[in-house]
Amino acid sequence: MLAFLYLILLPNLEPQTIHGQIIDQKGNPLHGVRISMNHSRTISDTKGHFTINNVSEIGNIRFSAIGYSTYTQTIHAHLKDMKVIMKEQIPEIRQQP
Fold it and tell me: Gene3D superfamilies, per this entry (predicted)?
């Protein structure tokens, strides 16, 4: 029984590649967004596209860019394509006493 489960789960442990696109709330592609997951890191291209290689487990993928709120999502290795909408970060206004 244990060997049977091992054979079923083994193919799911192979490293996968995740592709995606990052856009803003208006639908415009965002380039230069930093994307990281475990030990993999990349940056989105001019059309907002990105690729993360060697995803072999459940983990958190993190998207960060200047002027936008950092976005983190838990993903599974079987995920192939993502579409991420990043929200503009509203600056905190402080009044002087």
Answer: Carboxypeptidase-like, regulatory domain
